[in-house]
Amino acid sequence: xxxxxxLSGAGMSQESxxxxxxxxxxxxxxxxxxxxxxxxxxxxxxxLVNRFYNxxxxxxxxxxxxxxxxxxAELEKDFDVHxxxxxVDNLHERAGSSKVLHLHGExxxxxxxxxxxLIFELDGWELKLGDKCPKGSQxxxxxxxxxxxxxxxxxxxxxxxxxxxxxxxxxxxxxxPAAGLVHYTASSCPIYVIDPERPPISMKGVTFIExxxxxxxxxxxxxxxxx
Length: 227
Ligand code: APR
Prior knowledge:
The protein is α/β, with parallel strands linked by helices.
Protein backbone atom coordinates (compact mmCIF):
# COMPACT_ATOMS: atom_id res chain seq x y z
CA UNK A 1 0.00 0.00 0.00
CA UNK A 2 1.22 3.51 -0.75
CA UNK A 3 2.06 5.65 2.30
CA UNK A 4 -0.16 8.72 2.55
CA UNK A 5 1.24 11.13 5.13
CA UNK A 6 -0.91 14.02 6.37
CA LEU A 7 0.02 17.22 8.20
CA SER A 8 -3.16 18.67 9.68
CA GLY A 9 -3.86 21.91 11.51
CA ALA A 10 -6.69 23.76 13.19
CA GLY A 11 -8.61 24.19 9.91
CA MET A 12 -9.20 20.42 9.95
CA SER A 13 -11.42 20.88 13.02
CA GLN A 14 -13.04 24.19 12.04
CA GLU A 15 -16.13 22.48 10.59
CA SER A 16 -16.45 20.64 13.90
CA UNK A 17 -16.93 24.02 15.56
CA UNK A 18 -13.44 24.29 17.10
CA UNK A 19 -11.77 27.65 16.56
CA UNK A 20 -8.61 28.09 14.53
CA UNK A 21 -5.82 30.37 15.74
CA UNK A 22 -5.08 32.90 13.01
CA UNK A 23 -8.30 33.18 11.02
CA UNK A 24 -10.86 35.91 11.63
CA UNK A 25 -12.21 35.22 15.12
CA UNK A 26 -9.34 32.87 15.84
CA UNK A 27 -8.14 32.11 19.35
CA UNK A 28 -5.10 34.38 19.01
CA UNK A 29 -7.43 37.31 18.31
CA UNK A 30 -8.99 36.85 21.74
CA UNK A 31 -6.03 35.64 23.77
CA UNK A 32 -2.38 36.73 23.75
CA UNK A 33 -0.26 33.63 23.14
CA UNK A 34 2.18 34.92 25.75
CA UNK A 35 -0.57 34.87 28.38
CA UNK A 36 -1.89 31.33 27.82
CA UNK A 37 0.54 29.19 25.81
CA UNK A 38 4.05 29.53 27.27
CA UNK A 39 5.77 27.98 30.32
CA UNK A 40 6.32 31.51 31.66
CA UNK A 41 2.56 32.17 31.50
CA UNK A 42 1.95 28.95 33.47
CA UNK A 43 4.40 30.10 36.15
CA UNK A 44 3.02 33.67 36.18
CA UNK A 45 -0.74 33.03 36.01
CA UNK A 46 -1.65 29.31 36.22
CA UNK A 47 -5.33 30.20 36.82
CA LEU A 48 -5.66 31.91 33.42
CA VAL A 49 -3.69 29.21 31.55
CA ASN A 50 -5.67 26.44 33.26
CA ARG A 51 -8.98 28.17 32.46
CA PHE A 52 -7.94 28.53 28.77
CA TYR A 53 -7.35 24.79 28.43
CA ASN A 54 -10.35 23.79 30.56
CA UNK A 55 -12.58 25.89 28.26
CA UNK A 56 -11.13 24.21 25.16
CA UNK A 57 -11.57 20.75 26.72
CA UNK A 58 -15.22 21.60 27.53
CA UNK A 59 -15.79 22.55 23.85
CA UNK A 60 -14.07 19.39 22.66
CA UNK A 61 -16.44 17.16 24.65
CA UNK A 62 -19.39 18.57 22.62
CA UNK A 63 -17.51 18.64 19.28
CA UNK A 64 -17.83 15.84 16.72
CA UNK A 65 -15.48 14.75 13.92
CA UNK A 66 -16.51 16.30 10.58
CA UNK A 67 -16.70 14.88 7.05
CA UNK A 68 -13.03 15.72 6.51
CA UNK A 69 -11.95 13.60 9.49
CA UNK A 70 -14.15 10.67 8.42
CA UNK A 71 -13.05 10.76 4.75
CA UNK A 72 -9.42 10.82 5.86
CA ALA A 73 -10.01 7.80 8.13
CA GLU A 74 -11.74 5.97 5.24
CA LEU A 75 -8.61 6.35 3.08
CA GLU A 76 -6.99 3.75 5.36
CA LYS A 77 -8.82 1.15 3.25
CA ASP A 78 -6.57 1.98 0.29
CA PHE A 79 -3.51 3.67 1.76
CA ASP A 80 -1.12 3.31 4.70
CA VAL A 81 -2.26 6.61 6.25
CA HIS A 82 -0.13 8.39 8.86
CA UNK A 83 -1.69 11.52 10.36
CA UNK A 84 0.76 14.00 11.85
CA UNK A 85 -1.32 16.68 13.52
CA UNK A 86 -0.64 20.04 15.14
CA UNK A 87 -4.10 19.77 16.66
CA VAL A 88 -4.50 18.89 20.31
CA ASP A 89 -8.08 17.66 19.85
CA ASN A 90 -8.88 13.93 19.48
CA LEU A 91 -11.18 14.22 16.46
CA HIS A 92 -8.91 12.29 14.08
CA GLU A 93 -8.93 9.35 16.50
CA ARG A 94 -12.69 9.62 17.11
CA ALA A 95 -13.24 9.52 13.32
CA GLY A 96 -11.30 6.25 13.13
CA SER A 97 -7.78 7.26 12.06
CA SER A 98 -5.50 4.62 13.56
CA LYS A 99 -2.08 6.26 13.21
CA VAL A 100 -2.11 9.77 14.69
CA LEU A 101 1.01 11.57 15.90
CA HIS A 102 0.39 14.73 17.95
CA LEU A 103 3.19 17.29 17.55
CA HIS A 104 1.75 19.87 19.97
CA GLY A 105 0.29 17.59 22.65
CA GLU A 106 -3.22 16.44 23.53
CA UNK A 107 -6.02 18.36 25.30
CA UNK A 108 -7.42 15.17 26.87
CA UNK A 109 -4.15 14.46 28.70
CA UNK A 110 -2.32 16.09 31.62
CA UNK A 111 1.20 15.50 32.91
CA UNK A 112 3.51 15.98 35.83
CA UNK A 113 5.22 19.38 36.02
CA UNK A 114 8.46 17.68 37.15
CA UNK A 115 8.50 14.47 35.10
CA UNK A 116 7.30 14.82 31.45
CA UNK A 117 7.03 11.03 31.14
CA LEU A 118 4.25 10.94 33.75
CA ILE A 119 1.25 11.48 31.44
CA PHE A 120 -2.39 10.76 32.36
CA GLU A 121 -5.75 10.76 30.56
CA LEU A 122 -7.82 13.46 32.27
CA ASP A 123 -11.18 12.19 33.48
CA GLY A 124 -13.68 14.81 32.19
CA TRP A 125 -12.78 18.35 31.10
CA GLU A 126 -11.56 20.00 34.27
CA LEU A 127 -8.02 20.12 35.58
CA LYS A 128 -7.89 21.85 38.96
CA LEU A 129 -5.03 23.74 40.56
CA GLY A 130 -4.20 21.39 43.40
CA ASP A 131 -4.47 18.23 41.26
CA LYS A 132 -1.07 16.64 41.86
CA CYS A 133 1.05 14.03 40.09
CA PRO A 134 2.32 11.00 42.10
CA LYS A 135 5.56 12.95 42.69
CA GLY A 136 3.59 15.77 44.31
CA SER A 137 3.85 18.36 41.51
CA GLN A 138 0.91 20.28 40.02
CA UNK A 139 -0.48 18.49 37.00
CA UNK A 140 -0.24 20.64 33.83
CA UNK A 141 -1.85 20.46 30.37
CA UNK A 142 -0.05 17.92 28.14
CA UNK A 143 0.50 20.64 25.55
CA UNK A 144 3.72 21.78 23.82
CA UNK A 145 3.83 25.48 24.67
CA UNK A 146 5.70 28.06 22.64
CA UNK A 147 9.38 27.87 23.53
CA UNK A 148 9.16 24.18 24.49
CA UNK A 149 10.71 21.34 22.49
CA UNK A 150 8.56 19.27 20.07
CA UNK A 151 9.55 15.73 21.16
CA UNK A 152 7.70 13.98 18.29
CA UNK A 153 9.38 16.02 15.56
CA UNK A 154 12.14 13.47 14.73
CA UNK A 155 9.57 10.68 14.37
CA UNK A 156 7.37 12.96 12.25
CA UNK A 157 10.28 13.84 9.95
CA UNK A 158 11.08 10.15 9.44
CA UNK A 159 7.45 9.44 8.52
CA UNK A 160 7.35 12.42 6.12
CA UNK A 161 10.54 11.23 4.41
CA UNK A 162 8.84 7.89 3.62
CA UNK A 163 5.68 9.45 2.16
CA UNK A 164 4.55 8.40 -1.30
CA UNK A 165 1.89 11.13 -1.13
CA UNK A 166 1.90 14.10 1.28
CA UNK A 167 -1.25 16.00 2.23
CA UNK A 168 -1.29 19.37 4.04
CA UNK A 169 -4.76 20.17 5.37
CA UNK A 170 -6.02 23.10 7.43
CA UNK A 171 -2.76 24.71 8.51
CA UNK A 172 -1.35 28.16 7.82
CA UNK A 173 2.18 26.69 8.05
CA UNK A 174 3.09 29.53 10.43
CA UNK A 175 4.64 27.49 13.21
CA UNK A 176 7.96 25.65 13.06
CA PRO A 177 9.28 23.00 13.25
CA ALA A 178 5.89 21.50 12.21
CA ALA A 179 5.60 23.68 9.11
CA GLY A 180 9.01 22.44 7.94
CA LEU A 181 7.76 18.85 7.57
CA VAL A 182 6.93 19.35 3.88
CA HIS A 183 10.65 19.78 3.21
CA TYR A 184 11.40 16.26 4.46
CA THR A 185 9.42 14.67 1.62
CA ALA A 186 11.21 13.02 -1.30
CA SER A 187 11.43 15.17 -4.44
CA SER A 188 9.28 12.53 -6.19
CA CYS A 189 6.51 12.82 -3.59
CA PRO A 190 3.42 14.73 -4.82
CA ILE A 191 2.07 17.28 -2.32
CA TYR A 192 -1.63 18.18 -2.03
CA VAL A 193 -2.84 21.15 0.01
CA ILE A 194 -6.46 21.46 1.15
CA ASP A 195 -7.25 24.93 2.48
CA PRO A 196 -9.67 27.72 1.42
CA GLU A 197 -6.62 30.04 1.55
CA ARG A 198 -3.27 29.14 -0.01
CA PRO A 199 -0.68 28.68 2.77
CA PRO A 200 2.89 29.62 1.84
CA ILE A 201 4.55 26.62 0.18
CA SER A 202 7.50 27.48 -2.05
CA MET A 203 7.89 23.99 -3.48
CA LYS A 204 7.13 22.82 -7.00
CA GLY A 205 4.61 20.11 -7.81
CA VAL A 206 2.04 21.20 -5.25
CA THR A 207 -1.64 20.66 -6.06
CA PHE A 208 -3.84 23.19 -4.26
CA ILE A 209 -7.43 22.24 -3.46
CA GLU A 210 -8.93 25.55 -2.36
CA UNK A 211 -11.78 24.10 -0.33
CA UNK A 212 -12.67 23.47 3.30
CA UNK A 213 -11.62 20.10 4.72
CA UNK A 214 -14.83 18.20 4.00
CA UNK A 215 -15.25 19.30 0.38
CA UNK A 216 -11.50 19.20 -0.15
CA UNK A 217 -11.25 15.59 0.97
CA UNK A 218 -14.01 14.64 -1.50
CA UNK A 219 -12.00 16.25 -4.31
CA UNK A 220 -8.80 14.59 -3.11
CA UNK A 221 -10.46 11.18 -3.16
CA UNK A 222 -11.37 11.59 -6.82
CA UNK A 223 -7.90 12.95 -7.66
CA UNK A 224 -6.41 9.85 -6.00
CA UNK A 225 -8.73 7.66 -8.08
CA UNK A 226 -10.86 6.69 -5.12
CA UNK A 227 -14.29 6.71 -6.66
N1 APR B 1 -11.00 23.61 6.20
C1 APR B 1 -9.69 23.65 5.86
N2 APR B 1 -8.84 24.66 6.20
C2 APR B 1 -9.39 25.66 6.92
C3 APR B 1 -10.75 25.71 7.31
C4 APR B 1 -11.56 24.62 6.92
N3 APR B 1 -12.87 24.56 7.25
N4 APR B 1 -10.96 26.87 8.02
C5 APR B 1 -9.76 27.50 8.08
N5 APR B 1 -8.83 26.79 7.41
C6 APR B 1 -7.40 27.08 7.24
C7 APR B 1 -7.02 28.54 7.28
O1 APR B 1 -7.10 29.10 5.98
C8 APR B 1 -5.57 28.47 7.78
O2 APR B 1 -4.68 28.26 6.70
O3 APR B 1 -6.76 26.50 8.37
C9 APR B 1 -5.57 27.22 8.66
C10 APR B 1 -5.56 27.55 10.14
O4 APR B 1 -4.34 28.17 10.45
P1 APR B 1 -3.98 28.50 11.99
O5 APR B 1 -5.18 29.11 12.63
O6 APR B 1 -2.68 29.22 11.97
O7 APR B 1 -3.81 27.05 12.66
P2 APR B 1 -2.55 26.11 12.60
O8 APR B 1 -1.84 26.25 11.28
O9 APR B 1 -3.02 24.76 12.98
O10 APR B 1 -1.60 26.69 13.77
C11 APR B 1 -0.42 25.95 14.04
O11 APR B 1 0.00 27.36 15.94
O12 APR B 1 -0.79 28.44 17.76
C12 APR B 1 -0.12 27.34 17.36
O13 APR B 1 0.04 25.31 18.49
C13 APR B 1 -0.83 26.08 17.74
O14 APR B 1 -0.95 24.02 16.51
C14 APR B 1 -1.13 25.43 16.41
C15 APR B 1 -0.09 26.04 15.50
